[in-house]
Give the backbone structure.
Amino acid sequence: MSNKDLLFEKVTLGSTSIDNRVGLAPMTRTSATPDGYATEQMVSYYTSFARGGFGLIITEGIYPDDQYSQGYLNQPGIVYEEQVKAWKKVVDSVRRAGARIFAQLMHAGALSQGNRFVNETIAPSSVQPKGEQMEFYGGKGPFSIPREVTKEDITEVIKGFVNAAKKAKTAGFDGVEIHGANGYLLDQFLTDYTNHRTDEYGGSAENRVRLLVEVSKAVREAVGQDFTVGIRISQGKVNDYTHKWQGKDKDAEIIFGQLGQAGLDFIHVTEYEAWQPAFPEGEGTTATDSAFGDGGSSMARLAKTYSNLPVIANGHLEDPAKAREIIEKGEADVITLGKGALANHDWVQKVKNGERLAEFQPEKVLSPNAKIKEFETEGFE
């Protein structure tokens, strides 16, 4: 089998069969209506990648409840039936174009900078997030200090993910991706410096990953086995790009090991460069490293090693050689593209045909008047 055949062969994630191993990474858009409805422009936008050959489309983060989850104004939701109907138009169009589509469900937590339902934010602990709000997405100045969630709040958070997953299934999505990455609420529980809790959700890595596991199990139970469920995990965050897990490989073993037992069908990991060691200077090496002849595992390899689940890798993989390599090495089953996809909605077709790929030009996508927007860091959302 040729390298090209491997990149473009069929793959299965849970109950979803995908025509190739190339997906569109989830990226914040803020192109919905103020009421959170997907628009005709979004139908056209997502469908363009399906027509360009992408086998899998993962949507931008969708808020799952009408309480604390919304992160940005003009972010789409999937709370009400009218929102479900709007998403169904996107889903039907993408599927007619030959791709499969997952809904990413996102609770912004303390990083919310635009919520039409409430005026406060919540987090595992009352810790002000690092950095400042993103003006590109309508925010300004420091993030507000969040309210520490109660056990009742946690129950409501889980319920929101469950209800949203069921609505996504009703809308015709092929699956859902739970957003456990990039500094949003679930990642706030996972992160040591944003989680100061002393109950069963704080302290050890086993406790900090608990909510992610509970959400995953609850969603799986709600949607059944015939609907694909995955989760996205990262070290870096939209407001702290360089963060690394303090426990390094031990944290990876615990986090991915627990998620591997949570009823999930895949784990989607994102790093700045997906092929680089997760922990610099060879720190946090695993037992698999010696077999591969190097001194440090990528996040993708750690996820696959400890979860025994299919892995989606994201992070500057627009170079076809890099994309092929991470799959050939067995570190990932699917790759997703952010900037490379924005520059080439037909990336798959171009690579198949040996055509030259266009370079990403941020001024064409990131202008203040752009309706479809993309965050500056690859795959971060």
